User: Which sequence fits this backbone?
């Protein structure tokens, strides 16, 4: 008689007796195959054959030697076992259904099948295969869990991995077991223990299967397992066994956390397993979780609870009174899970059709808990609460009464110290915006429109109240409890009443005394009034948040930036006031993508993600066609969108917008139809067009032309007719941008990656036009425009830029323009009689006559000559570059030219360069310039240094000091005006004269050296902030051109940092930032003046100073090397900052060095030495504060602190100084707790510190600080929290 219990014990102890001596291990393949087939054939004939000793012994040998059996035979053996078992189950079912048959006859066969199946399955899933003919391993090879334990854990394939159809046979087995478990098995076995032993075999197999992660991912197999366990629970009262199994799985197997929720849900909904859910949840509620000692348990349990709240919220609701205690759990994972659970339960309750008072109260309590969790100590919990707000408010229920408080809390989290929290706060605010309940008026949220609607409704209510005699004169109600009712209503509508008071709207009034129609109308108006009040309150909250979101657009965390971009896109879609400013700020992110970053660089990938997001955002807002409009209407709409981007844009915004639109054009997102429409708007002449429309059209065309020059070349007459014609003269802004567009015709540039055209990426050759082109006539007319308009100056600047960019002899036209303007200044310049073919910058002239002239004409003149001076420098540099390029390209010809005399080369080069100064087009094949070609070829054949020397000589001696140079005539005039600013009462003249003088000084070092004292005097004495700012910029330019001159006067560059005008300070800071970061000026102890800007009242200046030091810290130890000078500048002298400002500045700067141990050690030594050289109490406190900012993580830094004690021991009498050193000791102790040598050294230092303190104060030696132990405890807690955050 087969006893299953005894056989299982023997199998467990490895003492199973087999009546056959046959072994599959080592047997011939044909013999093994024949033996197994004989046994399985008997099973096919009759499932009762399992009781045959020969068949059973053969199958036991098969199970024992399973790793050595061929995988094909393994698959057949398992298949036949399962098939025989299924057949036996059918026979049992038939016997139980029929009357007069004894079902116990099947008990032994079922036990034998159970024994063999357990042995085969456990052996197959735990033992590595030894078969040589094992096929390649499939997906099961990476299977983890208990099924892969033992030898298979080393990476070898198990028998189950290589046996075909193994998982399918298990599914068939568990499906058949479901049918078996539904039978009255108590009639099959004579005793309950025998029945339970049989059932226990398959429940253990089911548990083992769940532990296998590969099986857990198979939905069908998992469903079969769960149904089997639920039937076991339902029919055989195995509640506590299943509860134990679930709790153990949650404790040990991460992949089962959500699967166990599926099991509980299945039992709860389909198998009346309410008690199972209750017991599991009670068990969880009674546990205390800790993230420090147990990391897997809280994590798995948290996932289980969250998943169960999604699948079976009703089951969780029954035990929430017990589970709620986990909101105070030590493990932040559990607190996060409970917040998530509460969110899902809130959605479930809100979705109920019958909203009882209990349900409403429960929802309110859950919202109260969510609001409380916004203040959780752990950032992950705060982030989870924000995620809960997102999905709760995204559901069908809008919760309008709870939204204002939630939004206020979300806005508060925008300033959270944790990046993850800020990111989810932005996303939550975006969700709140996209799901807002104010759908009237097209769901638009324009405050002005909402206010108008509210005012209209309020006025109508006031009119109704005044027209009803009963209103306003009603006696106070005398019924008992009226006051209590009023108080209760007031409490419920507190927020609404506050909004009503803010809006100044009339309070609600009683409908008594009104006709039914009027009362209904009044009630409807009251509902509308409350609607618009709530909508306005929501808009005001969004406007408050947008100020913070604008700052977050500049965050270094790219995920925050992209979330902020999503918000502003949504806000513009809903017409929220102020959202357009965010879209403008977003355009600056187009420069985020780092140049030359590798694809594997994480920062580069993030930057490209921001840039891609920006392009998609602009495409979505402005370039996406509407399905409701025709193609023509969509083109007009897109054109209007692009033009609107230019309205009110600053120069920086236009620069970023240009790069953005250039990229969009290069990627083909802006079609030709839009370009044609922009041209038509620009060239519209039938009716008067608003100036902003034409200006916007030409600005956008100029931006798009950076990607496609054909936008200009295809219709150049349009630009001449409009921008340089009548409309350009009427609106000089149009003329200015037209000149900028025309410049792309001659700009030599390399096409950016992604540019349109077949030759994308190739260098585009510069094209120059003859001076007879009508373009130059139009440009000259702009420069000679007599209208007194301040916009003339930027238009004239761009006109000169276009002349020097496009013209083949720009100097000749420049001379004519100067002559014409000089003639307007009566007697200032006598027009020469020389022919037009004279040298471009050589004219005959006389000294200016001292007489009164029109300030406007004189201002125009000095502006023109100043800008021409700069363009001549640019022209000479381009000539030099071209000559050097030709030299490198014509190597064979250079050898032939080398035979020419050096004098001939130099003389010919000077003559050629002077002539080419009036002709930037350097085409050596021109027949009319044969002599110039020879001379240029001679220069090109010389060395590069000689070419540079020739150009430098022309720039240094001929432009401003040449006998026939037009610019030489105006240098003394500019000096005279700048020396006598007080005598010239016109502000515009003095500003432009100063700028022109600065431009002249960039031409020649001689002229610069002569007039540098004048410029420095203007920097300190000029009353106009514009002049001082221009001089600061000029000094930066001079530092680039003639660094040696500024090097001797570098201290003057820092003076304007203390200017009273914020614009001057900001300009100076920008100039110094550029010069220092690019290595054009060496820092010699002046960084302290830059550091003072960190505390400037103007936030823009302070932010720019922060950016400067952040970039400077990336240089080679720049902050570290200059730290002593910075401390001295901030702490000493008449311009020292106060101690509070000093502390904030030092905290910011020390962040750049405190992570470098070697630098820390050196700073400790230097600061200790500074104590010897000072007796000032303020400086001692400042030095001690700086030392307290260092981390003291190494033994070496503590050693230097101890060695330096004699330098500062006499300063310890000051309480503040001693406190700083005591803090240093406490901080060092937290970092050296695990270093015995450092700890001993620190004990010695503390003892000597207390001794020195007692000696300095004349008191007895102080005992160790009592707070030291508490500080250590606090530091340990902080370290534990940091570890949790890292986890």
Assistant:
């Amino acid at each position: 008689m087969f006893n299953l219990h005894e056989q299982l014990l023997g199998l467990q102890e490895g003492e199973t007796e087999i009546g056959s001596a046959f072994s599959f291990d080592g047997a011939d393949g044909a013999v093994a195959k024949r033996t197994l087939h004989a046994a399985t054939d008997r099973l096919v004939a009759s499932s009762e054959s399992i009781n045959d000793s020969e068949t059973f012994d053969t199958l036991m040998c098969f199970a024992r030697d399973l790793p050595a059996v061929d995988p094909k035979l393994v698959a057949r053996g398992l298949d036949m076992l399962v098939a025989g078992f299924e057949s036996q189950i059918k026979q049992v079912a038939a016997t139980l259904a029929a009357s007069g048959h004894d079902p116990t006859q099947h008990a032994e066969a079922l036990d034998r099948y159970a024994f063999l199946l357990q042995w085969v399955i456990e052996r197959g899933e735990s033992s590595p295969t030894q078969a040589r003919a094992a096929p390649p391993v499939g997906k099961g090879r990476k299977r983890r869990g208990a099924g892969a334990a033992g030898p298979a854990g080393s990476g070898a394939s198990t028998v189950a991995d290589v046996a075909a159809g193994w998982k399918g046979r298990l599914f068939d087995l568990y499906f058949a077991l479901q049918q078996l478990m539904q039978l009255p098995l108590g009639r099959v076995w004579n005793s309950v223990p025998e029945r339970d032993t049989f059932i226990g075999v398959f429940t253990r197999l089911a548990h083992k299967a769940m532990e296998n992660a590969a099986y857990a991912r198979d939905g069908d197999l998992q469903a079969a397992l769960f149904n089997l366990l639920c039937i076991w629970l339902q029919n055989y009262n195995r509640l506590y066994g299943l509860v134990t199994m679930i709790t153990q799985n949650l404790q040990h197997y991460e992949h089962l956390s959500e699967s166990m929720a599926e099991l509980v849900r299945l039992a709860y909904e389909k198998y009346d397993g309410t008690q199972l859910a209750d017991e599991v949840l009670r068990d969880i509620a009674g546990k205390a979780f800790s993230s420090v000692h147990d990391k897997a348990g809280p994590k798995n349990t948290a996932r289980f609870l969250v998943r169960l709240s999604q699948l079976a919220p009703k089951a969780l609701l029954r035990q929430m009174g017990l589970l709620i205690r986990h909101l105070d759990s030590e493990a932040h994972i559990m607190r996060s899970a409970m917040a998530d659970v509460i969110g899902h339960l809130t959605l479930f309750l809100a979705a109920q059709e019958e909203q009882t008072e209990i349900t409403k109260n429960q929802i309110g309590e859950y919202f109260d808990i969510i609001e409380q969790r916004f203040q959780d100590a752990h950032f992950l919990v705060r982030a989870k609460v924000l995620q809960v707000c997102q999905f709760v408010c995204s559901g069908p229920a809008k919760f309008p009464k709870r939204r204002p408080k939630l939004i206020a809390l979300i806005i508060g989290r925008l300033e959270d110290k944790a990046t993850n929290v800020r990111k989810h706060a932005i996303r939550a605010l975006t969700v709140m915006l996209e799901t807002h309940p104010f759908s009237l008026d097209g769901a638009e949220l324009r405050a002005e429109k909402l206010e108008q609607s509210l005012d209209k409704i309020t006025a109508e209510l006031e009119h109704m109240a005044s027209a009803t005699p009963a209103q306003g004169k009603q006696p106070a109600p005398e019924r008992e409890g009226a006051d209590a009712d009023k108080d209760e209503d007031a409490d419920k509508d507190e927020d609404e009443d506050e909004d009503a008071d803010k809006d100044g709207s009339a309070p609600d009034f009683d409908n008594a005394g009104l006709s039914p129609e009027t009362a209904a109308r009044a009630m409807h108006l009251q509902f509308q009034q409350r609607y618009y009040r709530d909508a306005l309150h929501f808009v005001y909250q969004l406007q408050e948040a947008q100020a913070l979101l604008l700052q977050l657009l500049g965050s270094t965390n790219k995920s925050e930036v992209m979330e902020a971009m999503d918000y502003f896109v949504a806000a513009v879609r809903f017409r929220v006031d102020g959202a357009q400013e965010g879209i403008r700020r977003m355009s600056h992110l187009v420069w985020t993508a780092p140049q030359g970053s590798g694809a594997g660089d994480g920062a580069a990938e993030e930057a490209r993600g921001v840039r891609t997001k920006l392009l998609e955002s602009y495409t979505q807002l402005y370039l996406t066609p509407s399905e409701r409009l025709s193609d023509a209407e969509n083109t007009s709409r897109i054109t209007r969108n692009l033009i609107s981007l230019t309205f009110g844009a600053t120069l920086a915004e236009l620069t970023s917008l240009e790069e953005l639109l250039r990229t969009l054009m290069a990627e083909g997102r802006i079609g030709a139809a839009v370009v044609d429409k922009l041209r038509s708007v620009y060239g519209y002449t039938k009716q008067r067009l608003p100036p902003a429309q034409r200006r916007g059209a030409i600005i956008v065309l100029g931006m798009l032309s950076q990607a496609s020059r054909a936008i200009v070349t295809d219709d150049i007459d349009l630009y001449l007719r409009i921008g340089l014609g009548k409309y350009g003269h009427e609106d000089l802004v149009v003329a200015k941008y037209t000149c900028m567009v025309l410049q792309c015709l001659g700009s030599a540039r390399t096409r950016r990656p992604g540019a349109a055209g077949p030759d994308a990426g190739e260098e585009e050759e510069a094209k120059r036009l003859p001076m007879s082109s009508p373009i130059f006539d139009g440009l000259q007319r702009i420069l000679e425009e007599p209208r007194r308009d301040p916009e003339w100056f930027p238009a004239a600047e761009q006109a000169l830029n276009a002349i020097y960019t496009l013209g083949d002899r720009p100097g000749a036209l420049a001379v004519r323009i100067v002559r014409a303007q000089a003639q307007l200044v009566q007697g200032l310049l006598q027009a020469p009689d020389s022919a037009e073919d004279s040298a471009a910058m050589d004219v005959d002239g006389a000294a200016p006559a001292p007489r009164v002239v029109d300030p406007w004409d004189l201002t125009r003149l000095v502006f023109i000559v100043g800008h021409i001076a700069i363009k001549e420098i640019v022209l000479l540099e381009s000539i030099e570059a071209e000559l050097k390029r030709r030299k490198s390209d014509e190597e064979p010809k250079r050898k032939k030219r080398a035979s020419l005399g050096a004098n001939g080369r130099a003389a010919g080069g000077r003559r050629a360069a002077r002539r080419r100064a009036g002709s930037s087009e350097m085409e050596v094949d021109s027949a009319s310039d044969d002599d110039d070609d020879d001379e240029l070829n001679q220069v090109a054949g010389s060395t590069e240094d000689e070419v540079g020397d020739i150009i430098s000589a022309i720039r240094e001696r001929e432009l401003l000091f040449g006998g026939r140079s037009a610019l030489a005539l105006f240098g003394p005039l500019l000096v005279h005006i700048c020396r006598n600013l007080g005598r010239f009462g016109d502000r515009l003249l003095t500003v432009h004269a100063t700028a022109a003088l600065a431009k002249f000084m960039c031409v020649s070092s001689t002229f610069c050296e002569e007039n540098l004292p004048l410029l420095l005097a203007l920097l300190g004495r000029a009353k106009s902030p514009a002049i001082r700012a221009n001089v600061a910029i000029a000094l930066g330019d001079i530092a680039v051109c003639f660094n040696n001159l500024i090097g001797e006067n570098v201290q003057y560059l820092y003076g304007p940092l203390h200017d009273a005008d914020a614009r001057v300070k900001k300009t100076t800071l920008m100039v110094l930032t550029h010069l220092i970061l690019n290595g054009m000026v060496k820092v010699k102890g002046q960084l302290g003046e830059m550091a003072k800007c960190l505390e400037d009242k103007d936030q823009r200046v302070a932010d720019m100073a922060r950016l400067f030091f952040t970039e400077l810290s990336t240089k080679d130890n720049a902050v570290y090397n200059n730290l002593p000078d910075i401390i001295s500048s901030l702490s000493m002298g008449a311009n020292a900052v106060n101690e509070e400002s000093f502390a904030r500045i030092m905290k910011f700067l020390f962040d750049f060095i405190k992570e470098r141990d070697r630098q820390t050690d050196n700073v400790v030594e230097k600061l200790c030495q500074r104590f010897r050289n000072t007796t000032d109490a303020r400086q001692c406190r400042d030095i001690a504060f700086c030392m307290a900012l260092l981390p003291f993580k190494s033994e070496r830094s503590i050693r230097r602190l101890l060695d330096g004690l004699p330098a500062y021991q006499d300063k310890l009498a000051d309480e503040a100084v001693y406190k700083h050193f005591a803090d240093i000791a406490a901080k060092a102790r937290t970092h050296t707790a695990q270093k015995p040598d450092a700890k001993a050294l620190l004990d010695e230092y503390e003892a000597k510190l207390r001794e020195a303190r007692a000696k300095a104060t004349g008191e007895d030696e102080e005992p160790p600080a009592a707070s030291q132990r508490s500080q250590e405890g606090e530091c340990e807690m902080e370290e534990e929290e940091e570890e949790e955050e890292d986890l």
